[in-house]
Amino acid sequence: MNKKLSAAEMKYIIYKIVKNGYESSKKEKNEPTDLNKGRSLAYWEILDTIYSRLEICEQNTSNFGYPDDWERKYWAN
Predict the structure, then answer these.
(1) For residues 45 and 43, what is the distance between their CA atoms, to the nearest angstrom?
(2) Cα separation of 27 and 10, whole Å?
(3) Is 73 helix (H, G, I), strand (E, B) or coil?
């Protein structure tokens, strides 16, 4: 099976990664274990990579679930 992802499916996947990243950041703030800190940092790395690529491709990052000033909000959770 070699089905290609549609643009809508790709947007949904990125949206879910953004949502999960913010949830991991909140969990790290509530339960600051090494595991939660590492998980939150790993999500941030992924989110930063995706965000940078979307910007390079001149995409509206809010269409993919990124809030304005996403990095500050990510670490403020």
Answers:
(1) 5
(2) 26
(3) helix
The DSSP string of 13-67 is HHHHHHHHHHHHHHHHHHS--HHHHHHHHHHHHHHHHHHHHHHHTT--GGGGTPP
Q: Rounded to two decimals, what is the model's pTM?
A: 0.83
Express each pLDDT in 33-70 by its tens digit. Answer: 999 999 999 999 999 999 999 999 999 999 999 988 98
Q: Alpha-carbon distance 68 to 70, whole Å?
A: 5
In the chain, % of residues over pLDDT 90: 74
Segments making up each domain of the chain, as ranges: 23-76
Q: What is the structure's pLDDT at 50?
A: 95
Cβ-contact 14, 50 below 8 angstroms: yes
